[in-house]
Structures are given as C-alpha cells and as structure tokens.
Fold this protein.
Amino acid sequence: MPAASVLAGIHVAITRPAGTGAPFVRRVRALGGTPILLPGLSLRPPTDMPAARAALRGALAGDIVIFTSPAAVRFAGRLLPLRGAAQALAPGRGTRAALVRAGCAKAIAPSRQDSEGILALPALQAIRGLRVALIGAAGGRGVLVPELARRGAIVIPVHVYRRAPARLGQHHARALLAGAAAPLYTLVSSGEALANVLARLPADARRVLLAGTAVVSSSRLAAAAGAAGFARTLIADSPAADGLLRRLVADRA
C-alpha cells in the first residue's frame, strides 16, 4: 500500500451514486487525502416490484445471468433469493464478491473489468439460442445487448432498480469552493453521473471541478470528460476504488 500521506493536500471528488461512496471515502482518507462526495446518481427500487420479481425469477431459471454491478446484486437480492439454474457472471471483482455474499459461489468474473472483459469469457462464446439475462437498470452504455444478440443469444433485460439524478445542495458546492486552491481529482466511473453532477453544480463550483483532473475507467469516459471541459484526464485500469486511486497515486508520484 502507498504511504498514508501520499495524498496529503489533495482533494478527491467522488461521483459514485448516493449511498455507495463510503468505500472510496475511506480509501482517500487512508491515503491522507480529502474526499468530497458529489453523488451523480440516486439508485431506487423499480416502480413495478411484482413485474421485476417475475422477470428476475424467469431469468434465474434461464441459461446465463449477467449482473451488471454490485447495485444490481443488492436490488435483485431484495426481490428474490439469487438461486437458480443459470450461470451467474459479473463484469468485475466487486460484483462477483457481491454475488458470492448473496449465495452465488460459482459466479465468474473476468480479469479485465468492463464490458469487453465479460464478453471475452468462455461462457459467452457459444451462446446461440441461449437465454442470457442482463440484471441491472434501464439505460447505460448498451455494449452487451447488441453483441450478445449478434452472437445469437436471446437477450433478456431485467431491470431490478432504476437510476435518477441525485440531489446536490449548497454544501456540495461549498466543499468544492473551500478547496479551490488545492489540487483536485474527480473519480468518474459513469458518464451519466458526471453529466448530472455538472448540470447541478452552480457555475463557480463547476469551474473549480473542471479545472482539476478527471480520473476515468475507460477511453469512452475520457472522451466524455474531455468534452465536458476537464483540464486534464487520466485513464485507470478499473472502475473500482482501488483501480481509480491507484492511477491517481501514480500521477502524484
């Protein structure tokens, strides 16, 4: 682990959904940095719980279920026990760990933690005619669905939660403005969350944010951060807290 003071004097904005930023906050503080929570999204239960429960039950009885995030596992687990005949897949270690905690001990995740990584898994190569369910929320990047369909799978989206813009108040803007003189890094793992944050900050706080460095988890997000106006962008090898912070720490070395 890097020295506990490696991020001393550094402010780190965290755009994770409301209620999910605590692991990032702990890691930033452990490295001596000052975390600033700027939630870009609010995660909520589906509007039609019985329909979501029925769809999830059918998915678990199918061939393959892909849980798109730890949040997908958490919300699905509130609907039903996550047991069934289907092979469970995850896009990364965090989602797989959530599945294991939920009782899916045989869940599989790729070493590359993104859509391309999961598409490279052996379980998704010969899938013509198989029922492959994507467990998550509506919207998102949309890479998996067309590629799985191209491979001949019967793709079944199952929405176990929904995303909405999070509320940002004056205290969020004040936290940014109070550290305006300090180096600022913004951790970004969702283009939707970033857009929501920028749309809801007042102009002076938005300028402070964009004058800093965005730490993103893909070239796609790097393009989004650049288009948004960030002065500088770094690409990490993972959207997980450790991956984003590892890239930040390397930049400070």
